[in-house]
Design a protein that fits this description.
By secondary structure, the protein is an all-beta fold. It has strands at 4-7, 10-13, 18-24, 33-39, 46-51, 58-60, 68-73, 78-83, 92-99, 118-119, 123-128. Strands 2, 4, 5, 6, 9, 10 and 11 form a seven-stranded mixed sheet that branches.
């Protein structure tokens, strides 16, 4: 059974930074690709960032490109999301998730919720104006 546990959320002023972490259980972490999603109140869960198994490929939603950076440390079974220049519209619960569905190419990376099979419980990020 895979478990994903997010941490690092909190309250920050606009323009500030946070780094989220997602710790995974199990021995197969390095074999899978990982993503970050977020869900604001009353809205659907949306894609934020993706990283493949060896960190060679990363992709971002347009709304966070240039401000957020996804990374991973396979030795620590952990994926990170560095969030800079935060805006009030970044306020949401942030989730990490695992997927096996990536075969290369910027047009084909997984960005739908149903393309990920395991999810963490989420961590709240609140950005005040």
């Amino acid at each position: 059974q895979v478990q994903l546990v997010e941490s690092g959320g909190g309250l920050v002023q606009a323009g500030g930074s946070l780094r989220l972490s997602c710790a995974a259980s199990g021995r197969t972490f390095s074999s899978y690709h990982m993503g970050w999603f977020r869900q604001a109140p009353g809205k659907e869960r949306e894609f934020v960032a993706f990283i493949n198994w060896n960190s060679a490929s990363t992709f971002y939603a347009d709304s966070v490109k240039g401000r957020f950076t996804i990374s991973r440390d396979n030795a620590k079974n952990t994926v990170y999301l560095q969030m800079n220049s935060l805006k009030p519209e970044d306020t949401a619960v942030y989730y990490c998730a695992r997927t096996a569905l990536f075969f290369g190419g910027s047009a084909n990376y997984p960005r739908r919720v149903d393309e990920y099979d395991y999810w963490g419980q989420g961590t709240q990020v609140t950005v005040s104006s």
